[in-house]
Amino acid sequence: MAKEKTPDAISLLKADHRAVEELFSKFEKARGDDRKAALAKQICNELIIHTIIEEEIFYPAVRGAVEDDLMDESYVEHDGAKVLIAEILMGKPGDDFFDAKVSVLSEEIKHHVKEEEKPGKGVFAQAKKGGVDLMALGQEMAARKAELKQAFAQDGAAQPQTRTFTGAKIGRGTPPAYQGAATGM
Ligand SMILES: [Fe+2]
Predict the structure, then answer these.
(1) At what angle do helices 68-90 and 33-53 cross, to 10 degrees?
(2) Which end of the chain has fewer CB atoms < 10 Å from its terminal CB, N or C?
(3) Quick check: 184 pLDDT over 60?
């Protein structure tokens, strides 16, 4: 727990990125369904909180400083990730394609993080250049994050909510015959 001082907005978000990368790599190495279930849940919770503070506070504050196309893609990438997060939260280790869903989520997040952190051109770099008050934003985000963490600890994670996806129904076709994941063999 960082008790020292509240980080600026970008340091806070980058620390979140590093934490979730670490959880994904732990999941990759994990053995045993209980351990995997705990890690998957932790990953989903962290990501839900992260998307909420970005969407509620960070993205609206930097809109204008950051190219519109890049901002739009950020929201859509979040929504794409939420679909997988919802799938993972509904499933459990041992389910067909469970590990694959976690692994594809990890790849999506890697891409998203790259777009945010890209030197010179990423969302963070553009926000910095645009003169956004990152200290004030950091404080607001840290407070909201603490609030969400407490709420999640009490009542479980909130259901992820999309912001750009319209809730269009997707049909469920016949699943491919499951061949089994190659992990743990
Ligand atoms: Fe993000």
Answers:
(1) 150
(2) N
(3) no
